[in-house]
Amino acid sequence: MHGHPTDKLVAGSIVGGILTALLVVLMVWLDFPSDRLYSAPVRLAVPALISACLLFPRPLLHRTVLRAKRDPNLLDEDLNLLLLGRVLGLIGGIIFGISLASEIL
Questions:
Q1: Measured between alpha carbons, how far is 39 from 26 in angstroms, rounded to an integer?
Q2: Which residues span the membrane (predicted)?
Q3: Are the C-beta atoms of residues 55 and 31 closer than 8 Å to each other?
């Protein structure tokens, strides 16, 4: 009926990795922020921050503020693993996005 909590870890890492890799490639392709004005760490921090702003608010709100209104079948362990998966996906997406951007562009 319900999946194993590890499914949340895998799903979070896949979603985080794909979203972050797409943002890294898109930002490098659009040259935002410009490579003439900013260094490489700043150019990677911008898509990482945008990705974090898209990935983390909902699970964090369900973990803290909206705890009473969340689905009763969603356990704290599931949310913890979902957040951990999204962190791992964010890190992996940055690495994968760098490799994709260097090969494509």
A1: 17
A2: 9-30, 42-61, 81-101
A3: no
Q: 85 CB contacts (<8 Å, ≥6 apart)? A: 8, 9, 10, 11, 12, 13, 14, 15, 16
Element (H, E) at 7: helix 5-30
13 contacts 89 by C-beta, under 8 angstroms: yes
Report the C-alpha gap between 81 and 62 in whole angstroms.
13
Domain residue limits, the chain: 5-104
Q: Report d(CA 45, CA 51) in Å as an integer.
A: 10
Per-residue pLDDT reduced to its tens digit, 20-74: 999 999 999 999 998 889 999 999 999 999 999 999 999 999 999 988 888 888 8
Query: Distance between CA 16 and CA 80 in Å, rounded?
Result: 15
